[in-house]
Design a protein that fits this description.
By secondary structure, this protein is an alpha+beta fold. 44% of the residues lie in helices and 14% in strands.
């Protein structure tokens, strides 16, 4: 069995850090030994896991005339032990609810799940249903998923309880409807109300399409230009000068106007519109509007100083990489999962707003999980019945179980009532911009398919690091180099 690719690549990164920090042959030898030892352990664990899964498959023969549906868990949430029993209960409840289908659960450790599923697919022994799985996991197995269009039509499946934009989010231009909405994490603008109050500024609009009311009471379009203007006022140095002042000190900033919270180049660029670093023919590219985005972020960091550079992001001023929670960032584009996990120590009043338009387009990037049926399934109708059970009758408790916002519109009111109670200041927050963000989900998604995703990810993140660390960077030239390097990665033998 092949070694776990993701784990080994992580180890190689560690080796590089050791070499930089320590240097010398000793570090190299020790690192190589560590990789060899760990690789052997991973290979052994992968073989054991695969054997365990095969044992489950062999032993779980259908009872009587029942059709068996195998449910594979591991590409997303669900492989942690606290979720074992709740998922087993879902299986038991489904099996008790009808007499025709026997649902069988296969849980694989997240570190081994990709390799295990790839092995099963290659061996012609793939499961029927996989999930929860996000866009990144889905696109890793590109071409392996069933287009659900015919099943939706044949079963007259009602999609009216989903935002139309979310249904479209799960479509692929070439492969069709690969999933249906389940657990979602929209983006929105989080803003620090106290910093706006101190600056005497009105808050960002709460509805998409609404204007911003400037300091003079004028209605102006809520777009990137408007965000820039107020972000300059909200960016302040240690002497109290904002970024509009000739006395402003960019080397001593204590408060920033705007940032993307925890995202990579693709995620940040999506503010300017959806895109991809690979075209339909498999060639490397950087869309023109993503070039514009890269130039804008570099200027925002090094000329306008409204967006934190890497040194500031990693500093105590911005909470050592938790910028919005620090209280020293006025506005951040955040995913809902960030709000739930990572502002627990916030001591300031905050609220949500609409993401600003860029030109005539508004995009709010999306993270989302679903369940997908494998194209190789011998029982697609039965698998579809299980899938619709998960996203229908069990949607409320299963989204809660996995920690996601329900995509079903009818469930979102209760969700936010509960969610708000667990978030500092959450009961006074307007969650409407979060819900509205569903209509602007990026498609193609910023986590969508690239050949050799691990290597490609490392390379474009190198570029993103340069943007945040080099004030003299030739952004356009570096993007040309990025395309060349990505193409070499895509073309390398064995990359698909």
């Amino acid at each position: 069995m092949r070694k776990n690719i993701w784990f080994i690549m992580g180890l190689l990164v560690v080796i590089g850090l050791l070499l930089v920090a320590c240097g010398g042959d000793t570090a190299v030898d020790e690192a190589e030994e560590a990789v060899e030892e760990t690789a052997a352990e991973v290979e052994e664990a992968a073989e054991e896991t695969a054997a365990e899964v095969e044992e489950v498959v062999e032993e779980a023969a259908p009872s009587g005339d029942k059709t068996q549906v195998r449910w594979f868990v591991g590409l997303g949430a669900g492989s942690d032990e606290p979720l074992f029993e709740p998922q087993e209960q879902v299986v038991a409840d489904f099996n008790d609810s009808q007499d025709d289908i026997e649902l069988v659960l296969e849980i694989v450790d997240a570190d081994l799940a990709y390799q295990t599923l790839a092995t099963q697919i290659a061996a012609g022994n793939a499961p029927d249903l996989v999930g929860p799985v996000g866009i990144r996991g889905r696109d890793f197995f590109r071409g392996a998923w069933l287009d659900l269009t015919e099943l939706i039509e044949a079963n007259n499946y009602d999609l009216s309880d989903f935002d139309e934009g979310m249904v479209q989010f799960y479509t692929d231009a070439t492969e069709g409807q690969l999933g249906l909405p389940f657990a979602i994490f929209p983006t929105f603008l989080s803003y620090n109300k106290e910093l706006f109050d101190e600056a005497g500024l009105n808050y960002p609009p709460a509805e998409y399409g609404q204007p911003y009311i400037d300091a003079d009471g004028n209605e102006v379009e809520w777009n990137l230009e408007t965000l820039e203007e107020i972000a300059k006022i909200l960016t302040v140095d240690a002497n109290g000068n904002d970024a509009t002042s000739p006395d402003f000190d960019p080397d001593n900033i204590v408060q920033f106007g705007f940032s993307q919270q925890w995202t990579d180049f693709r995620g940040a660029a999506t503010l300017f519109g959806p895109g991809s670093l690979v075209d339909d023919a498999g060639n490397a590219q950087v869309p023109d509007h993503w070039r514009e985005a890269a130039e804008w972020y570099h200027k925002a960091m090094w000329e306008d100083h409204i967006y934190p550079t890497d040194a500031y992001v990693q500093s105590d001023i911005l909470g050592n990489d938790n910028a919005f929670e620090s209280g020293n960032l006025a506005m951040a584009q955040t995913h809902l999962w960030y709000t739930g996990c990572c502002i627990g120590n916030a001591t300031f009043e905050w609220d949500t707003g609409a993401v600003p338009a860029v030109g005539d387009q508004t995009t709010a990037k999306m993270h989302a999980d679903t369940f997908a049926i494998m194209k190789s399934s011998d029982n697609p109708e039965a698998a579809f019945e299980v899938l619709t059970y998960f996203i229908g009758d069990r949607a409320a408790d299963m989204t809660q179980m996995y920690g996601g916002m329900p995509a079903r519109l009818s469930l979102q009111g209760d969700y936010f009532d509960t969610f708000a109670q667990g978030v500092p200041g959450g009961e006074s927050v307007n969650w409407d911009p979060v819900v509205a963000g569903m209509a602007y989900a990026d498609n193609p998604n910023h986590e969508a398919y690239m050949p050799s995703p691990q290597e490609a990810n490392e390379r474009y993140n190198e570029f993103w690091t340069l943007v945040a660390t080099d004030p003299d960077l030739d952004v356009d030239g570096e993007l040309d180099l990025l395309i060349e390097d990505l193409q070499a990665i895509y073309d390398a033998e064995g990359n698909e």
